Amino acid sequence: MKESKKILIIGGGAAGFFAAIRAAENPSYQVSILEKSDKLLSKVRISGGGRCNVTQACFRKSQFLKAYPRGAKLLKVAFDEFDAKSTMDWFEKRGVQLKTEADGRVFPESDNSQTIVSCLLSEARRLGVDIEMNAGLEKIKPLLEGGFEIWVNGEMRFADKVLIATGGASKMAQYQYLYELGLKIEKPVPSLFTFALNDESLRALAGVSVSEVNLRAMGVEDAGAMLITHKGLSGPAVLRLSAFAALDMAKQNYTFPLFVNCLPQQNQEELREILLNARKDNLRKQMGKFSPFKEIPLRLWNLFLLRLRIAPSQIWADTTHKVINQLVEQLANLSLQVKGKNTFKEEFVTAGGVALENIDFKTMQSAKYPGLFFAGEILDIDGVTGGYNFQAAWTTGFLAGRAMAE
Ligand SMILES: Cc1cc2nc3c(=O)[nH]c(=O)nc-3n(C[C@H](O)[C@H](O)[C@H](O)COP(=O)(O)OP(=O)(O)OC[C@H]3O[C@@H](n4cnc5c(N)ncnc54)[C@H](O)[C@@H]3O)c2cc1C
Fold it and tell me: Is the entire prediction scored with pTM above 0.90?
């Protein structure tokens, strides 16, 4: 009997499992997952606060792609084959009921990531995927006659096709074995972090949020909600900015000026008008007790007064034209100094990794080494929060698995 061909999947995470399951649908291949740790799908398990935000229910491709600071070009092609709708269908066909929250995030109806983990494990088991744990890839050598030699725990093995799905990594050294193959690696840096600020007056406002601000740093702008925390700033706008400016912020060692427009819906002329009217209509009111902007919580309004050395007890009648102009500047262009980064609910992704220029976008195969495939966060692809990172893992895993078993 002809021996079946061997597919080795390196990494038992979201991308690795998705690829293994798709590849194992072709019984002519023997599919194995090698996982370095003693845990499978560990990030799926802890993801989304233990609920697993599987994907984002946004079905306009152009809109979906805007969530990826890196990798949108590859995903534009890949999503034609397998997108968010395909992911939802895939899980639902296998008995996982999903629900979509108001902001588009998709979770299992159970609100428990174990539902996703169990689905992936039982599919892999049903299709006969062999799983080996405590088996870390150390080195890989492409053979002239085809196939690969793989070193795992000091032992050499053979595989016809190999998928590297080892996830993100924080240090260049972790990509060394790929670098030695002459593959281009984009320097890994963290993405999706919050901003650390050493600002006592801001710290006093921990818990205050503004539903729509415009943030500007390092030539990048983003809009959305912002939350003041006891360590600095967080919230969707901050996380998005951290993703889109991840490379430059790393170069600046996370020390950079940040400009916040707390009222982006109005231009400076309109803000001035509102302030002048507020003065006219509230002559005897104390400034610290009355903010003319319902979007700005009173505690934050008082921070602006503090920064301009205006006593909260000052009445509006005593506000000069100069002070009105200074207030406009503060509201539209609050200048802060970021002094570092913090993690967001321990969630982060790696920007950088295996460069996309030598990867076939429909198969995830390396142009340099036929038979060698890549999927998931090891690639220089990352998205903002909201299910986009898993979607990239499912899509690239699916395409790699399908191509490997062709
Ligand atoms: C706390 C947290 C919460 C998150 N929540 C969400 C969310 O809700 N939604 C979302 O879209 N994204 C989320 N993400 C991001 C998402 O988890 C990742 O983008 C996704 O898991 C990437 O999948 P992957 O398979 O490429 O890598 P991973 O899930 O990291 O899997 C890689 C696997 O490879 C193994 N491995 C590494 N090196 C080797 C080696 N040399 N040999 C063998 N095995 C190896 C690792 O042990 C690991 O099991 C979250 C991330 C974190 C950290």
Answer: yes
